[in-house]
């Protein structure tokens, strides 16, 4: 079986939207599927990937199966992004400094005639 991770889960826009919906409130599988114009088997595949990645859990309540968000795994994404945020913030600060110094008025020396 292929190992799935949180990055794979958020790579797909449908899965990101499923996460957004379930983060607001637990939903049963039919309610999730009703929000998309794709087949129920396709939604089931997305739900399976999100479950394997640990971003959602499925809880049985009577005859219904509800999806609940487990967003702690997104911390891994945040930490990965943070290292690049520091890098790019430094680069943009350096660019800002360069542009501020580069836009100083140029003092012309009077030419000798």
Features of this protein?
113 residues, alpha+beta, Arc Repressor Mutant, subunit A, 3-stranded antiparallel sheet, 5 helices, WH_DNA-bd_sf, ArsR-like_HTH
Instruction: Give the overall pLDDT as a whole number.
Output: 88
Helix percent band:
55-70%
- The largest beta-sheet arranges its strands as 1-3-2
Strand content: 5-15%
Q: How many H/I helical runs?
A: 5
N-end to C-end Cα span: 83 Å
Number of strands: 3
Radius of gyration: 25 Å
Uncertain spans: none
Largest sheet: 3 strands, antiparallel
Instruction: Indicate the CATH topology of the largest domain.
Output: Arc Repressor Mutant, subunit A
Number of individual domains: 2
CATH superfamily of the largest domain: Winged helix-like DNA-binding domain superfamily/Winged helix DNA-binding domain
Derived from helix and strand composition plus strand pairing, the structural class reads alpha+beta
Which class of the largest domain in CATH terms? Mainly Alpha
CATH arch. level architecture of the largest domain: Orthogonal Bundle
Protein name: Metalloregulator ArsR/SmtB family transcription factor
Domain HTH arsR-type: 1-89
InterPro entries: ArsR-like_HTH, HTH_ArsR_DNA-bd_dom, WH-like_DNA-bd_sf, WH_DNA-bd_sf
């Amino acid at each position: 079986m292929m190992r799935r991770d949180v990055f794979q889960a958020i790579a797909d826009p449908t899965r990101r939207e499923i996460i957004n919906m379930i983060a607001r409130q637990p939903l049963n599988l039919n309610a999730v599927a009703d929000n998309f114009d794709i087949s129920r088997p396709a939604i089931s595949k997305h739900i399976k990937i999100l479950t394997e990645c640990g971003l959602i859990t499925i809880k049985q309540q009577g005859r219904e199966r509800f999806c609940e968000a487990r967003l702690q795994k997104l911390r891994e994404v945040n930490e990965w992004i943070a290292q690049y945020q520091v890098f790019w913030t430094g680069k943009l600060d350096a660019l800002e400094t360069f542009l501020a110094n580069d836009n100083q008025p140029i003092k012309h020396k009077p030419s000798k005639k």
